[in-house]
Amino acid sequence: MKFADLHLHTNLSDGTFTPEELVAQAQKHELACIALTDHDTVEGCARAAAACGPAGIEFIPGTELTAEHDDIEVHLLGYFLDTHNELLLAEIARFQAVRKQRIYEMVARINELGLPLQAETVFTLANCESPGRPHVARALVKERMVRNLDEAFERFLKKGRPAWVPKSKMSAREGVDLIHQAGGLAVMAHPGLNRTDDIIPALVAAGLDGIECFHSKHSNTLSKRYLAMAEQFGLLVTGGSDCHGFSKIRPLIGSVKIPYELVEKLKAKVAEKQRSGTSGHE
Ligand code: AMP
Ligand code: ZN
Ligand code: FE
Ligand code: FE
User: Fold this and answer.
1) Ligand 1 probe mutation, 38, 133, 153, 241, most atoms within 8 A of CB
2) Is the pTM of this model over 0.70?
3) Rounded to 5°, angle at Cα 83 from 41 and 223
């Protein structure tokens, strides 16, 4: 049996592995295929693809976009993207600018609370174009202003906490269109984590291709629930660990392995879209 993990992060967003380290981990876990899905970037894809070649691992270039529908946050995974697509890169640059501005705002709030954290500390630590809350949390730990990442989120960064700053997001429809025009498939990430059930029909109407039924934070019950929804709405099924690198116990990579057959179904859909001319690759 061949297996895949289609939800992985590196240090080009808020993961800790380099693309090369991630591929070494994939090899260790005997994965036949991986997709890189860093937040609001495709920057790590070239390096991951280069490392996958000699490792004999099939690579799918991807990303994870933060979008919203009816005030509900939804994460959209894009797969088989043309990572040179101009509109995709322009939009990604815009979201990255929003992310950087948000870091300054979160740091200002933390300063108002009496902690002298500097934005530069966060940016230096993040060392990427797509900084986010995990980098602020790591900077707080580094400066010994909190004991650990959980404390940083609980005291400051979680939604509703004093240093939480809402992020302006694209609509889910815009996200699906952006992925499609870059030749990709659009998949709803971890539906069990975002309370997104009510908006699934609207996203299907917007052209959603698939749904992430298997995820490290989905129970068996949740996986079954979304498998049934995939069937009901005619959506492709995906899955992945959402590994962000080193964590408390062990990295999540290897904890979710989906059968390679599911990747074949994704590839068949991409090929079908290319044939019918509805994809960006023309
Ligand atoms: P951002 O995109 O900047 O809003 O950051 C979101 C990321 O922060 C998610 O992808 C998670 O990796 C991480 N995250 C969100 N909530 C928590 C939490 N309570 N504890 C630890 N990490 C979290
Ligand atoms: Zn993340
Ligand atoms: Fe996510
Ligand atoms: Fe993720």
Assistant:
1) 133
2) yes
3) 65
